[in-house]
Design a protein that fits this description.
The protein has 511 residues and is an alpha/beta fold. It has helices at residues 16-28, 43-51, 55-71, 88-102, 117-133, 148-155, 182-195, 208-219, 231-240, 259-269, 277-284, 287-296, 311-322, 357-373, 394-409, 421-425, 427-433, 451-464, 490-507; strands at residues 3-8, 34-37, 75-79, 106-111, 138-144, 162-163, 199-202, 224-228, 249-251, 302-305, 332-338, 343-347, 379-383, 414-419, 445-447, 468-475, 481-483. Helices cover 46% and strands 16% of the residues. β8, α9 (231-240) and β9 (249-251) form a beta-alpha-beta unit. α2 crosses α3 (55-71) and α12 packs parallel to α13 (311-322). The mean pLDDT is 93. InterPro entries: P-loop_NTPase, P_AcTrfase, P_AcTrfase_dom1, P_AcTrfase_dom2, Phos_Acetyltrans/Butyryltrans, PTA_PTB. Keywords: Acyltransferase, Transferase.
């Protein structure tokens, strides 16, 4: 990902053009192919989108254009709006929103003409607080129109450069490394899924949320959708919900021409378990079993279920006859937890009750691979109630052994453990509890010792931080089958289908 820096202002005639020109020349000294990018080329068009309720579409368009710029460059300098309109507060909010979604730090262009050092200091502090609320880092202020003495007085109040000279900002260029924001992550999911549409079967096809999600997925061409259920009921309910599922394949399992073949195949696969053809027909009358058999028979590429059914009901058929990959000893799960400014990965919070050290090590490696497959840099924290050698007990010993085994399995993986959550996420705490550790304070993948810890952890983070949890994503199966929370929303379903499609692409070598 290209380094990105966002230059913005608070009003017209703030010296933004001079700041952009100076910074671009400075960047050329350290980047091979820098590019200047204007996320909002036309303010009036952007405001029309916002006023008509199409703000999300506007951000998606900006992200797409920015990704194109990144593909051609190693440093993208973003220039905010010109504040030529009548709503400077709205422009400021728009610029902050764009920077936040790009994961870009900011340099503020500010004119101090006619203002005192104290007034300018207060303005910068207010701006900094506003950026912090949006999880945007202020890296410096390009200050013009002030005497050298006043400029120094303002600069003395801040740890970052405050100057009218571009060379003063050389130190901030290394702080412009991009990271995956939640919006970028979700945008990337849809974009990847759209490249090679996969056939995804939704067994709970008569449920309202699935019908709404199917309509979105069809409209956005994220996947080829297969709904299981009564076609008349599904179309009637879609009409009542004012959505269209035209374009989806709708199959009523018991009336399907494949029903007898699927039942016979299941009876054959489970013959050693004593399954009769009558019992096989009963299983295939269950939408989840039928959908899983569609994957086995290569009539679908993946399945998403669980909005109504339990995790066990979703996973059991896959364990019976999809089976695990040759490289995976167990099936486990991962959640992508989208915070305000970043995306973390948690495993295993849904499948394995109390994994032993060998299983926990496998979960750690597999979850790190899952994170990397979706564009997230894995820095793995093996969570425990103690950090380093500070505690003793069976659970700590299990995590220590699992960490050792995980390092053997993946020697190039960044991993540390045992480590407490605070030391894993907070840099100041990490310096005290585990100084010098490459993961402590900046972990992105969190491996829990058991399902009790994991299920409560991800839900606590989700609820207390207002985060979006995507998953659980199942890991280790030969074909992608993913589970939904019974409390899932329509966007949750859309994202999970996109993830399943991407997994199916990977299984076919299409990524």
């Amino acid at each position: 990902m290209a380094r990105t820096l966002f230059v913005t202002a608070l009003a017209a005639k703030s010296g933004k053009a001079e700041a952009v020109a100076g910074l671009l020349e400075l960047i050329k000294g350290s980047a091979k192919s820098p590019v200047l990018f204007r996320p909002v080329p036309c303010l009036s068009t952007a405001l029309e989108h916002i006023n008509s309720g199409k703000g999300n579409a506007l951000i998606d368009d900006i992200l797409a254009s920015w990704k194109n710029a990144c593909a051609e460059s190693d440093f993208v300098l973003c220039e905010g709006t010109d504040f030529a309109g009548n709503s400077p507060a709205l422009e400021n909010s728009l610029n902050a929103c764009v920077a936040a979604n790009l994961g870009a730090p900011v340099v503020l262009a500010l004119s101090g003409e006619g203002a005192s050092a104290a007034e300018i200091t207060a303005t910068i502090l207010t701006f900094q607080c506003g950026m912090k609320d949006k999880c945007v880092e202020l890296l410096g202020v390009f200050l013009s129109g002030m005497s050298e003495e006043d400029e120094k007085a303002v600069a003395s109040s801040f740890p970052f450069p405050v100057s009218g000279k571009a060379e003063a900002f050389a130190s901030v260029l290394d702080k412009c490394e991009g990271h995956i924001t939640p919006r970028l992550f979700e945008f990337g999911l849809i974009e990847k899924a759209q490249k090679h549409p996969m056939r995804i079967v939704l067994p709970e096809g008569e449920e309202d949320r699935l019908i709404k999600a199917a309509a979105i997925l069809i409209e956005r061409k994220v996947a080829s959708i297969i709904l299981l259920g009564n076609p008349e009921k599904i179309h009637a309910r879609a009409a009542e919900l004012s959505v269209s599922v035209e374009g989806a394949e709708i199959i009523d399992p018991v009336n399907s021409p494949d029903f007898e073949d699927f039942a016979a195949t299941y009876a054959q696969l489970r013959a050693k378990k004593g399954v009769t053809i009558e019992q096989a027909r009963e299983k295939m009358a269950d939408n989840t079993y039928y959908g899983t058999m569609m994957i086995y028979k290569e009539k679908a590429d993946g399945m998403v279920s669980g909005a109504v059914n339990t995790t066990a009901h979703t996973v059991r058929p896959a364990l019976e006859f999809i089976k695990t990959k040759p490289t995976a000893s167990i099936v486990s799960s991962a959640f992508f937890v989208c915070l305000k400014d970043r995306v973390n990965t948690y495993g295993d919070c849904a499948i394995n009750l109390d994994p032993d050290p060998e299983q926990l090590a496998t979960i750690a490696v597999t979850t790190a691979e899952t994170a990397a497959a979706f564009g997230l840099e894995p820095r793995v924290a093996m969570l425990s109630y103690s950090t380093g050698n500070s505690g003793k007990g069976p659970t700590v010993d299990k995590v220590k052994e699992a960490t050792r085994l995980a390092k053997e399995k993946a020697p190039d993986m960044l991993i540390t453990g045992p480590i407490q959550y605070d030391a894993a996420v907070d840099a100041a705490t990490a310096k005290t509890k585990l100084p010098g550790d490459p993961v402590a304070g900046r972990a992105s993948v969190f491996i829990v010792p058991d399902i009790n810890t994991g299920n409560n952890l991800y839900k606590a983070v989700q609820r207390s931080a207002g985060a979006v949890a995507i998953g659980p994503v199942l890991q280790g199966l030969r074909k992608p089958v993913n589970d939904l929370s019974r409390g899932c929303s329509v966007p949750d379903i859309v994202n999970t289908v996109a993830i399943t499609a991407i997994q199916a692409q990977a299984e076919k070598g299409l990524n």
